[in-house]
Amino acid sequence: MSETTRVDEAVGQGLRVVVVTGAGTGIGRATAWAFAEQGARVVAVGRRAEPLAGTAQRAPGRIVPVAADITAPDGPEAVVRAALERFGRLDVLVNNAGIAPHATLGGYTREGVGALLATNLTAPVLLAQAALPALGASRGVIVNVSTAVGQRGWPTNSAYAASKAAVDSLTRSWAVELAPLGIRVVAVAPGAIETPIAEHAGIAPEQRAALRAWQLAHTPLGRIGDAAEVAWAITRLASPQASFVTGVVLPVDGGAVVS
Question: I need a surface site. Which of 42, 157, 174, 209 has the fewest CB within 10 A?
Answer without folding.
Answer: 209
